[in-house]
Design brief:
single chain
């Protein structure tokens, strides 16, 4: 075991790997409760129940997808990187594809499955790296930051801090409302924990908020803490049964968006975590092909189980900071997710008021990439800004990506920098232009 994971070469041991693996789990455990709440659209009161995903099934799918995906990453790629259904991708799945486009969640899951299969094929063929390289870094950073703003906007809405206003579209909510005050308290506590660099600060913030909510009668108390594992029956294999429903231009755009976000989320996370762990060699990632295949397989497995795209988590850096250097830490994290399956009764205490602070903080973390954009170059600033602003304002990640990728070739050509544009970008801009012409009312 020690030889396979190169303990001696990387200067690590079982103790450091176990501590690192547990730390990574605690840092991302919030997804076990945020993902079911997001995919079931629990914060949308007037959405028909028969059109919602089953929260219990999504909880089980989330835990299993995270465990299996992380296990594959640990054993095959030997990286201390954990996987789980991605924030941003789950919001796109629920609030854009299902709520805004009116596409059934069953069909959306099929789209996730197809996107995962395409990513596997692209990785095995070597095209994935070429496509990633064709997108300028400024647009990659803008997409990540834009998703962060979108998630934060959803968090403010769920908290009741931002509400609908017919006169000016949005306005400040009633800050005297009990649930809103609970979210503000949770946000404050989470900020304190994060500033103090407490490992798993987002997770612990949710726990403290839920406990305080129960004390003041704002959050229902669970009947028990440990219970039976919720059935996967409502979601398992559904993606396979609805593959025939994905043949439309609208679903093509949805699948491309799933692929695009997963592309760069994974690439950025792997580079960041590997660099922190000292695994980069000559500015290249060893076993990058295995890592990308592992990530893509996580999405395929997750879709079949019944959840949105599974991707590598930047929270893995918390585990690396605690000492993790090898895939053995990922095995430990995977084991933690399997144990978490028995804590489904706690889903009842994870209300939108409890998850809202987590969404806002995750958004803060994601917009850190804004500093890498060359704002002094107007031809780059325009498409980057349009991506950032249109994602939350149109309530659509796909729309933000589409607008930015249409304007980038235009501004670059007008600046006389057309030779810097990769042919793949022209193809993407045409696809997104067709999206607006034929699909947007």
């Amino acid at each position: 075991m020690k030889k396979y994971f190169q303990f001696d070469e990387l200067g690590t041991n079982y103790r450091r790997e176990i501590i690192g693996g547990i730390t990574t789990f605690l840092s991302m455990a919030y997804i076990l409760f945020v993902n079911p709440a997001t995919l079931s659209l629990s914060s949308v009161a007037d959405f028909p129940n028969e059109l919602r995903m089953d929260q219990g099934a999504v909880f089980t799918a989330t835990a299993l997808a995270a465990a299996i995906g992380t296990l594959i990453m640990g054993i095959v790629a030997r990286y201390p990187v954990a996987l789980a259904p991605g924030m941003g991708l789950n919001a796109f799945f629920a609030f854009t594809v299902v709520l805004t486009y009116g596409i059934p969640w069953q069909t959306a899951l099929s789209g996730v499955l197809v996107s995962g299969l395409f990513l596997v094929l692209l990785t095995l063929s070597g095209l994935r790296e070429k496509i990633i390289d064709s997108i300028p870094p400024e647009l990659k950073h803008a997409v990540g930051a834009g998703i962060g703003l979108f998630i934060t906007f959803i968090g403010f809405q769920n908290a009741g801090i931002i509400v609908n206003d017919d006169a000016v579209l949005v306005g400040l909510g009633d800050l005297r409302n009990g649930n809103t005050l609970l979210s503000i308290f949770g946000l404050t506590i989470t900020i304190i924990l994060m500033v103090r660099q407490v490992k798993g600060g987002v997770f612990y913030g949710m726990v403290i908020t839920a406990v305080v909510g129960m004390i003041f009668g704002l959050v229902p108390k669970p009947d028990k803490i440990i219970g039976e594992i919720p059935s996967l029956a409502p979601t398992f294999g559904v993606a396979l049964g609805h593959l025939g429903d994905i043949f439309s231009l609208q679903m093509l755009v949805v699948i491309l968006t799933f692929m695009f976000v997963d592309f760069f989320d994974t690439a950025g996370t792997l580079v960041a975590v590997a660099n922190q762990a000292g695994l980069l060699k000559n500015n290249k990632l060893p076993r990058i092909g295995r890592a990308l295949v592992s990530d893509s397989m996580g999405t395929v497995v997750g879709a079949i189980l019944g959840t949105s795209s599974t991707t590598s988590y930047v929270e893995s850096s918390a585990g690396v900071a605690a000492g993790a250097r090898t895939g053995f830490a990922s095995i430990i994290t995977a084991g933690c997710f399997l144990l978490a399956l028995f804590f489904s009764p706690l889903l009842s205490v994870i209300t939108s008021s409890v998850t809202a602070p987590a969404l806002i903080i995750v958004g803060v973390l994601m917009v850190s990439s804004l500093g890498h954009i060359k704002w002094d170059q107007f031809e780059i600033a325009v498409p980057a800004f349009l991506i950032l602003i249109t994602m939350p304002l149109t309530y659509s990640i796909a729309t933000g990506i589409a607008i930015g990728f249409i304007f980038y070739p235009i501004t670059m050509l007008l600046k006389g920098r057309g030779k810097e544009i990769h042919p793949i970008l022209y193809g993407l801009s045409i696809v997104f232009l067709l999206y607006f012409i034929f699909l947007v009312n």
